[in-house]
Amino acid sequence: MANQKIGRFEILSTLGQGAMGVVYRATDPLLERTVAIKTISLELSKDEFEEFERRFYREASSAGRLNHPNIVTIHDVGNNDNIAYMAMEFLEGDELRDILDAGVPLTPERSAEIASQVADGLAFAHEHGVVHRDIKPSNIMILKNGAVKITDFGIALIPSSSRTMAGMILGSPKYMSPEQVVGQDVDGRSDIFSLGVVLYEMLTGKPPFSGDNISAIMFRILNEMPTAPGTLKPELPAAFNYIIAKALAKHPDERYQSAGEMAEDLRHYLALQVPANFFAHADGKSRTLERRARPRQETDETVLMAAGTLSQSATTGRGRGKKALLVGGGVVLLLTGLWLFSRGKPPVQIETQPVTSAAMALPPASAPVPSSAVPSAPRDEATLGFAIAPWGEVYVDGNNMGVTPPLKELKIAAGKHKVEIRNAGFTPYVETFELQAGATRKIKHLFK
Question: What is the DSSP letter of 315?
C-alpha cells in the first residue's frame, strides 16, 4: 500500500500483520511526523468484523486517554472506506517477544527493570479504570533508548464498556490469569498475573505454563505452580522466587494488590523483605532466609475461543493424566481450579525476614501456614501424610494448609483434628481423628 492513503495519513511501508489486521508505517502530513497505522482486517465474517471493530475502537478509547511514558500514545482513530484504523506513535525498537525468541540473555537487573516499567504503565492504566487483559511479550516494546512501552489495548476492559461476547474467552493462552481462563470478571490483578508470567520467561528463558495444546496450558494455569525460577537458574537472587510466586498466586487476593506495589518490589529486589513463612515446604515448616549481598517458541497470539473448549486430555508436566471439567451448552469453562475463587478469609499477619540466594520451590497458592499449626516443640508434634489424586486443597481445623500434591506431609500439633480435603466438582473428603505425639497418619483418597 506504499504511496496510498488511509484517512489523511500517507502509507510508507508495511510493518507487520497481527491477529486484528495490518500495521503500516505512515506519515502525518498535517503534523509532519511518522506514525504507525493499525488497521482492522476485512477478511472476516460480518459478525466477526463487527466484534473486532468494537474491540478496535475500544482500544483507541482505552489507550487514547492514557498519557504515560510506558504506554503507547494514540494520535487519531477513524474509518476510511470500511477500513477502521488507528494512528499511534511510531516506536523504534524491538518487541520483547523478538528479543526472547532470539535467545538474547536478559540479566536479572534488566528483567526487573523491564517488568517494573510495565508495572508502572499498568498501575497508571488501572488507576484510570483500564485493564489491559492481554499482557505478553509481543505487546511490550523495548525502545532503542531502553524505555519500555505497553501496546495493544485492543481487549482492554473499561467498566462502562460492554462485555466481550457471551461465552467467549479472549486473550493469549500462556499469559492468561486463572480468572480469565474460567471466564470470570477481571480487574488489574489479572494483568499482574500476566506480567508475572512474562517476568518468569525473561528470568528463565521459558514460560511457566506450557503444553502440547491449549487444554494442557489452561489446566496448568488453574492447578499447578511452576518450578521456582531460582531452581532453574540458581544464580538468580532468591527474591525473584517471592516476586514470581506472589504475582502468580492463583487467587487474586493473594497476589500483589496493585501493579505499583509489584514495581516497588522489582526495583528493590536485592533488599526485599520476604515474609518469614512464605517459603513453606511440603513438611509444613517454613525456612527463614538471610540478606543477600548485591551481586522462537510457542505462539502467544491472542485468541478468541468458545468457553468450554478445553478437552479432557490436559496433562501435567510429569505426564500424569488429569481430567479437566467441561461445561457445555455455551456455559463458561469450569475447571477444578475454581476452588481458588471460593476463599475470602483475611490474610494472616506475619513477620518478615531478609532474603538470600537459596533456591527453593514456589509455595502453593494458599494462605500462609498458620503458626498455631506448626508447634515449636517437636515432642508435641504428629505427622499427617497425604496420597491424594489428582489433587486436593488441605484444611486442618478450618485452616488452609496448601495443596497436595506437591504437599506430602504436615507436622501438626498432637491432639484431635478435623481434616477436610477439597477438589472442586467433587464431594469433599472429611475426617475427624485424634493423633498422639510422634504418631503418623496417612490419608489416601481418590477424587472420582
Answer: B
Q: Write out the CATH class of domain 93-341.
A: mainly alpha
Digit-coded pLDDT (tens) for 186-201 = 999 999 999 999 999 9
Range(s) of the chain covered by CATH 3.30.200.20: 5-89
d(CA 142, CA 349): 39
Residues 6 or more apart whose CB falls under 8 angstroms from that of 321 comprise 313, 315
Rounded CA separation 425/130 (Å): 33
- In this model, does residue 43 exceed pLDDT 80? no
Q: Which of 70-79, 215-224, 358-367 has maximum average pLDDT?
A: 215-224
Least confident of 26-40, 168-182, 281-295, 432-446: 281-295
- CATH 2.60.40 range(s) for the chain read 370-446
Q: What is the CATH number of domain 370-446?
A: 2.60.40
Q: Measured between alpha carbons, how far is residue 71 from residues 56, 264, 392 in Å? A: 17, 18, 41
The pLDDT of residue 100 is above 80:
yes
DSSP 332-371: PP--GGGGGGS--PPPPP--EE---S---PPPPSSPPPPG
Pure H helices in 233-339: 239-247, 259-267
- pTM to 2 decimals? 0.61
> How many CA atoms lie within 13 Å of 225's alpha carbon, on the beta-carbon side?
27
Asked if 134 is an active-site residue, the reply is yes
Looking at the DSSP assignment, which residues form a beta bridge with residue 383?
411, 440
Instruction: Decide: residue 354, CB within 10 A, 0-12 exposed, 13-18 middle, 19+ buried.
Output: middle
Within the chain, all domains assigned CATH 1.10.510.10 are found at 93-341
CATH class of 5-89: alpha beta
Q: How many CB atoms lie within 10 A of CB 44?
A: 15
Q: How confident is the model at residue 165 (pLDDT cuts 50, 70, 90)?
A: very low
Distance CA 186, CA 250 (A): 13
Gap between the Cα atoms of 256 and 390, Å rounded: 29
Selected catalytic residue, list 134, 152, 191, 300: 134
Verify cis geometry, omega within 30 degrees of 0, for the bond prior to 406.
yes
